Amino acid sequence: MNNFLNNVFKYISYDERRKKNLEDVTKKSKQYMEMTKYEFIMEYTNIVAKFEHKRTMFSLVIITIFLTMVTGCWKYFFDIFNALIVTNSALFSGYREQAIIFVILVFILILIVLIFSLMKMAFNLNRLNKEKILIEQVEKIRIKGNIK
After folding, report:
1. Angle between helices 96-145 and 14-33 (to 10 degrees)
2. What string of H, E and C letters represents the secondary structure of 18-58?
3. What is the pTM of this model?
């Protein structure tokens, strides 16, 4: 039990996370430094392209969500879904209140999934940005050292 608590505190503590990040950066830097010129160019291109693509997709999703909120499209989705469930469903016939609660719960579930998806996209974007910055720093070191 005591060992488990120590592991939890190590995971939470800034010093341990910093140490682990330093080890990861050192390992990645050495890996990039040992690459040939063309391997490095390929890796650099892939990372930057992936970052730009994810950033564009994230921006597109955020703008789309914002526009749907501003234009009030969610109200129409809710009304259509509500009409489909309440009027055409044999499952909810005679149970209008339960059908409305079901529709609200479905929309809350969609909202939760959307929020978690956006959070995951943001964390991935942050991770790729860190990797992009690292590989750009290694590129500067390689240029100064004239590594082929």
Report:
1. 50
2. HHHHHHHHHHHHHHHHCCCHHHHHHHHHHHHHHHHHHHHHH
3. 0.70
CA distance 67 to 59: 12
Instruction: Tell which wins on pLDDT, 89 or 80.
Output: 80
Gap between the terminal Cα atoms of the chain: 52
SS3 for 100-116, per residue? HHHHHHHHHHHHHHHHH
Q: Given this model, what pLDDT does residue 118 score?
A: 92
Question: Tell me, what DSSP letter sits at residue 65?
Answer: H
C-alpha distances (whole Å) from 127 to each of 8, 30, 106 are: 23, 19, 32
More confident residue, 89 or 113: 113
The angle subtended at Cα 93 by Cα 87 and Cα 97, nearest 5°, is 85
Mean pLDDT over each residue of the chain, to the nearest integer: 83
Backbone CA torsion sign across 125, 126, 131, 134: positive
pLDDT tens-place string over residues 86-107: 665 555 556 667 777 777 888 8
